[in-house]
Write a structure and sequence with these properties.
Distance between the termini: 40 Å
Strand content: over 45%
Number of helices: 0
Order of helices and strands: EEEEEEEEEEE
Shape: globular
């Protein structure tokens, strides 16, 4: 059974930094695409960044140059380093995963990020 557990959210001032972590169990990182979504109040959930089983990375345009996604295969941990945070980065950040050969998606419960201006 796949389990994703996020941590690291909080309140930060605009221009500050935060690091989110996602502890994953029940998967092999090299066969899964993992990523982060976020959802702000009243808005649709949006994809922030992904890293494939082969290590390829994707970022949505709004976070390019400010966010970095990474993984530690030995520790089964996914991370999102966020810098130069803006108020529009505020939202619930959810860890997400899907097997590269198909199948269902898995979601974490989310961790709240609030950026004050």
């Amino acid at each position: 059974q796949v389990q994703l557990v996020e941590s690291g959210g909080g309140l930060v001032q605009a221009g500050g930094s935060l690091r989110l972590s996602c502890a994953a169990s029940g998967i092999f990182f090299t066969t899964y695409t993992l990523g982060w979504y976020r959802q702000a109040p009243g808005k649709e959930r949006e994809l922030v960044a992904t890293i494939s089983g082969a290590g390829s990375k994707y970022y949505t345009d709004a976070v390019k140059g400010r966010f970095t996604i990474s993984r530690d295969v030995d520790k089964n941990t996914l991370s999102l380093e966020m810098s130069n945070l803006k108020s529009e980065d505020t939202g619930m950040y959810l860890c997400w995963g899907k097997h590269d050969m198909g199948g269902g998606q898995s979601w974490g419960q989310g961790t709240q990020v609030t950026v004050s201006s």
